[in-house]
Amino acid sequence: RNSGIPPYTPEVNKSAGGVVLISPTEIAKVRMQTQKQSHYSVTASHLSKPKYQGPVHCLRMIAKEEGFRGLYKGCSALLCRDCHSFATYFLTYSILCDWFTPAGKNKPDILTVLLSGGFAGVFGWAVATPMDVIKSRMQVDNLGQRKYRGLIHCIRVSVKEEGIRVLFKGLGLNCIRAFPVNMVVFVTYEAVMRLAEALMK
Question: Do 38 and 51 contact (CB within 8 A), yes or no?
Fold first, then answer.
């Protein structure tokens, strides 16, 4: 039975190369999500503008204030998050497709793809969330009053101050989002692959 997804091999780790492109967009997203909204100023009769007024403006401000390296703050945690989570993601999908597909059938049916894709997304985020939490904390760490000296220090301080549960903050929401999203991702993937195979015959 061939689901179209190969078993895990070291080649999966090549996805880590995408971190170079993803990191700036990740830090812009986190900075904009955590910045305070416009507020009424006591010394002025108008609303003060938020620091970041859009993703491009956010990237420009980070580069200006923190240098080019600022765009890659938390990159080590992002790399750790994506390498093992993608491996888990694809491996889970392949295993579940094999498991749910009846003997003698070469391709999984749509229900199998939906369930396998949904659970693959959940398992992927289950292993990704701890590093995602650390990544976000490193990305919003104030440069002027820097709290974390690096990946390991951030993990140690976070766990010491808030307990091991801090590494799983947001896990429930990540899983709730991941299930339907990855159902659609893998159904689309399988449909495209089967269409390509049909056209090549």
Answer: no
Cα 123 from chain centroid (whole Å): 12
Q: Are 183 and 117 in contact (CB under 8 A)?
A: yes
Tokens (6 digits) for 142: 């104030």
Which pair of structure tokens corresponds to residue 78? 């992002």
Whether the full predicted model's pTM is greater than 0.70, yes or no, is: yes
pLDDT tens digits, one per residue of 26-60: 999 999 988 876 544 455 555 667 888 899 999 99
Backbone angles phi and psi of 7, in degrees to 5: -60, 160
Nearest to residue 4, comparing CAs of 138, 199, 192? 192
Of 5, 160, 186, 196, whose CA–CA distance to 94 is shortest?
5
End-to-end, the C-alpha distance of the chain in Å comes to 19
Q: Residue 132: what residue type?
A: D
Main-chain phi, psi angles of 60, to 5 degrees = -65, -45
- pLDDT tens per residue across span 84-93: 899 999 999 9
- 132: pLDDT strictly greater than 90: yes
